[in-house]
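Deviations from the work plan: none for this task. Representative record:
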Amino acid sequence: MTNESSAQPNSDNNLRKSFRAVGHLVDSGIMKEILDTIIREDGKFSIDRFDIGKTNDDQSVLEATYTAENATTRDAIARHLIDLGVEIDVEHSVKVEISPADGVAPKDFYTTTNHKTTITYNGHTIQVDNVRMDGAIVVYGKDTATKAKCVKQRDLKSGDKIVVGVEGIRVEAEFVERDRSEFGFMTGDVSSERVVRIVVDSVAEVMSDRTKKIVVVAGPVLIHTGGSGSFGRLVEQGYVHGLLSGNALAVHDIENQLFGTSLGIDTKTGEAIDGGNSHHLRAINEVRRAGSIKNMVEAGLLNRGVMSSIVKANVPYALAGSIRDDGPLPETITDMNEAQTAYGKILEGADVCLMLASMLHSIAVGNMIPARVLTVCVDINPPVVTKLKDRGSHQAIGVVTDVGLFLHLLANRLCT
Amino acid sequence: MTNESSAQPNSDNNLRKSFRAVGHLVDSGIMKEILDTIIREDGKFSIDRFDIGKTNDDQSVLEATYTAENATTRDAIARHLIDLGVEIDVEHSVKVEISPADGVAPKDFYTTTNHKTTITYNGHTIQVDNVRMDGAIVVYGKDTATKAKCVKQRDLKSGDKIVVGVEGIRVEAEFVERDRSEFGFMTGDVSSERVVRIVVDSVAEVMSDRTKKIVVVAGPVLIHTGGSGSFGRLVEQGYVHGLLSGNALAVHDIENQLFGTSLGIDTKTGEAIDGGNSHHLRAINEVRRAGSIKNMVEAGLLNRGVMSSIVKANVPYALAGSIRDDGPLPETITDMNEAQTAYGKILEGADVCLMLASMLHSIAVGNMIPARVLTVCVDINPPVVTKLKDRGSHQAIGVVTDVGLFLHLLANRLCT
Amino acid sequence: MTNESSAQPNSDNNLRKSFRAVGHLVDSGIMKEILDTIIREDGKFSIDRFDIGKTNDDQSVLEATYTAENATTRDAIARHLIDLGVEIDVEHSVKVEISPADGVAPKDFYTTTNHKTTITYNGHTIQVDNVRMDGAIVVYGKDTATKAKCVKQRDLKSGDKIVVGVEGIRVEAEFVERDRSEFGFMTGDVSSERVVRIVVDSVAEVMSDRTKKIVVVAGPVLIHTGGSGSFGRLVEQGYVHGLLSGNALAVHDIENQLFGTSLGIDTKTGEAIDGGNSHHLRAINEVRRAGSIKNMVEAGLLNRGVMSSIVKANVPYALAGSIRDDGPLPETITDMNEAQTAYGKILEGADVCLMLASMLHSIAVGNMIPARVLTVCVDINPPVVTKLKDRGSHQAIGVVTDVGLFLHLLANRLCT
Amino acid sequence: MTNESSAQPNSDNNLRKSFRAVGHLVDSGIMKEILDTIIREDGKFSIDRFDIGKTNDDQSVLEATYTAENATTRDAIARHLIDLGVEIDVEHSVKVEISPADGVAPKDFYTTTNHKTTITYNGHTIQVDNVRMDGAIVVYGKDTATKAKCVKQRDLKSGDKIVVGVEGIRVEAEFVERDRSEFGFMTGDVSSERVVRIVVDSVAEVMSDRTKKIVVVAGPVLIHTGGSGSFGRLVEQGYVHGLLSGNALAVHDIENQLFGTSLGIDTKTGEAIDGGNSHHLRAINEVRRAGSIKNMVEAGLLNRGVMSSIVKANVPYALAGSIRDDGPLPETITDMNEAQTAYGKILEGADVCLMLASMLHSIAVGNMIPARVLTVCVDINPPVVTKLKDRGSHQAIGVVTDVGLFLHLLANRLCT
């Protein structure tokens, strides 16, 4: 195919960019997304070469050019295309600018995705460390020892060398691809009309791989729906390697163990107890008196339930505070920057992330993890996984069902 | 306590009504409802006597008077109070008027509730037969052989003697009462944060009473969520005595048995199959070819699933058509008046009604059954039971969970 | 590119099919869907030629081959691909078989989509008339006068010549395409976080084209949310050319006009009136007494509201019955086959379909209309448009908002 | 009526309590709640006197006794009854115990409600200051200068004198009562089938009282749904006296003003822009560069939108951080204890609280405000107000609708 000069409305070469993409472009939807992006920004494209993978195993190769109406949209298109894994000017060196103040990036800084990223810098190709969504790339070190790392905006230091613009950046987008998922049911659908037991089997299969690091994100609904015992079994038998939650999960778990209720629901009879007993406040008071959950467990004051099993099994955990908390518990991290740091530490090296009925903490974790982490989101409300995906955690799989029953079936499948 | 004359703004005795109520007026909420009704219609009340039940077993007695602003609101209040079980002028004979034409009631006809109802007529007290919501009361027969029955508006005949106005009618409202339910969990709440297994135990307990007639209302979600096998076990072991549904349940059940899919979901792998196979149309075609579901079962063409187990166990069923049906199947009743009649016949004498994920059919059945029928509504969508209650089926209990899992747990509890 | 023989696991030529597709294959998502279908059915594909549209206006051309594992999956793939607009053996003549009985199709009958369809028959290319979802194609007439029409399964006659298999059929799929929609906001998204006023502007723009036939499908929520007056204005000023609904809409509209309530909600104060007044039953009784809604309007007994404005403006309407109906009204069509026919007649030639808060009737209408009808579905519940799309009405656009407010804004934009 | 000795199963006088309640016990539902509480805890009651209010304006008087099975349930019942406004041993002096450590209450501490509370202490009746939900009562000062205040658990100091047990406490529960609401539509219902315009009129009426302090709690949906302009008008014309929100509202507002998008939705066209532009990160960066939102406004860099209008009108605001925040903005309070304090300060003296589409912040505020604050919760999701009520904010009224449209209608009603 020849280049079609008639497709370029603008002779200004500055508004024109050549680009290249390799991969399963059609079945991942990237091909469509590339072209849609250009059109949405009122650009035009001209395809020079598109060698489609002839069979399902072959990759496709795209070579094309787009023309934008002005420099702003030219760069907006480039930024979006790069994040899709498209190569634009990758052989150029990245431009860097100096951070003007602590916690402030240069105006045109490149914001990272949750995909593997490399940059070209002074002729070297450097992989960016600690990649996560919505960070900046800081270049440091000298000559052949030059390195690059992804840094959260607020952790930038005055004088940091920060990647700006769109040149010299290559992203390897790991999109959900047909027939390549570790989850058998991985259709990306969010449906309440799904055969939950099939999903449980598939998740159990993945979790039974003892080399995988599994982190659970959970809300207090885990306790309300009676999932506490099943979760405890999974912890005891080594299927949970980190727990991320908020103040409420621990409070209602301990309330449940001390008083048999969980925010006013009798977890034995299911009967609603409307207010009046303040059990959750008394539970908080007992932990404050003991000094910590760990102290309570060691003193024999707390013997069962989620937190007890987590403490006994030495599973690391982080409880993030929130504006609506009662108490909070002594171990709840009230500063959100510190809480994000604590979450990040437990998430290091995670392979699987099980998100159980907590939109707030699930979105927080979605922001922090690379897209390669297998992510399953269980909630009786359909919108949770949709929100996760809208915010860039495209890898998340949604299961619409009761969390207590899900854990019951999962523990029965995995535990002896 | 003395009557307070100062409370009557209007000396017109015609706008004043004495009334009396006996029962668990406080814990059923009836007392509050009575007073709220009067105030909402801009009436005034004066309480002459209120003997509250001194202990939980004692009934309360209320004797009072209300005054309305005009005859219209006087009667509106009376109608509402009577439906709550309040006695107003019960010793008077009911007034009757003659139906002016087939299917037409006199203007002021009394519309029935789903509670036990008696009328006073020529000095006799007569119990109304076939009571159901939203009917008219027809009086027939002579002297001591005079009888009364509840008749749907469209079944009235020209010349029928129909009860009008508000006098001489007594309703025995069976409202949900504290501590008197056969369901242990009967709080009337609708919550997704509930311990589903407790509910299953409670429903299983009720169903295990072999003297009870149990009718199931179900939508196609039963099939999509993999509940078919568990439901079949319940049928085989005699826990289902009637099935009310629509065209879709049978179509998707048969599609599932013949092709392994249910409206485009592979019920073995849970994978979505988007269109293209038209299995549900082919399933319909096969039933049309055989002439009926029964023929298919007898010819050995359909051996498993919901409809097969129902046919083999000789459980009566009715499939009502709807405007969105494909096909329909030969046995689907396309005329809605006939379908209502068929439903009504199967519901005769029912003690328990299990409503599984079908808002349309559940509301239809709610309209037909007396309030004394134990009614459990299982749906992953919270609004279904709310709609049922809004339409007068106050006895319905809601369980928000996955229908497939619910049946799985229920069958495991009940079946050998 | 050369054909890759190594990709064919099976030398049996019977399991191999060549196919061809032309159109905006990438941006419509069809290209991805074609390849996904083959892989899902465990087939293999080999692409011989893929000329991608070099600019946004150019069409793409695909020529390829797939190989299936057996004849069943070969045909399943073909069926799905054809429905996507792919050409497979289109130059062959269609095979026809004789209908074995009234209402029964041959086993392997082709089930139609809602897209424009043509067949090759004895060397002629014939366009199929009356195309709609889920029908069969009947061939009739002789030689050059041979015609083809889409017929619902139940309307087939014994002896009809019916298209079977997959050869000789061409479908022109009108998928949602980037930048080609008449609706400015047409992203296909379903979002509650959308700027409703933008959507209203866009719908108003389409409706202001006086050459378009606009049919409204509506549920009783139109009345409950106070949309009655705005809807009346749209009718009076000629923006509504057909109304499809059920018994309830008319009942609650007339109840609202006669008594100021709509199923127990005072539509002036918004106050809930719980049962007790039976206004909807009295409204039904008044219509039954008058004989019809039309009679009531002509007798001056009904002067305002949805049904009055519809009758006065001579807008055709059809009210379909349902199993949960009270009454029903004399004009409600109780037989579902007849109701579908009545709906179909009003939908003939429709260009725009506005679906207002009625899942049941919206899905019914979605089954009946060609995909080219602009379809907007307004509902406060997000799942309605999802269900529509799941059932094949891919053209439907969802707006999640209050129907009363939507109509208020729409009437203000359109009406003088 | 005489005391019925037969109702007491236990002769132990310690398990028996006399109690008294005065008020609109029936129409507020308190009477039912009192009796339900006793029965749920397996207690028995005996009513000695119940003088029901003879007319709607009269209060009722209840004098009764309950007997519990053991001391634990005796006190549990007492605690619940006291919170309903029942008087039990109010003439006794409260018991106080000394706080064992900072932030720790004695085991049996009394946990406060959001209702007006008084205690009896050494023969004096003392009103508790700063009453809020879930606090402890600290008694301080000497003799006639003795005072009592409500203190959050974590703010207790070692050595504080804290009220324990159930004696000497009187709560004046301000429950929603029939016909006494300032909101005309105040049915307590949560319905999507409601006439929103009626609600708007009612809220506007309340807000037009210029003596009222009105605090708005809002989530970023306010921006996404296009409510920014209407909200700005309300601020400018003096209808907003405090704004409580999180990081996201301010980020998306500023993103919207700087870039015309709000988390990837073009707020002019409603078109979704999926990722790739990172506008929200650039917006955060600009505020960090300026140092604060105030600096941006003063420097003329931010001229319109929610935050600009708030800053210009000198309306106090607090942005609470959360674990899922990007950034955060310099003014976002990252420590949750500090954020609660900042919220509390702005809420001091509030009369009306308008909660707009933010479950997290609405529940937080619900915990902090007395029940006398008129509270309206607008959200397109029905569960939000239910959650608020479940957590004790019984006074909250729910409106299920689009926030952008709600503000549009409200500003049109209120603003010139």
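Chain D touches chain C through 33 residues (CB under 8 Å).
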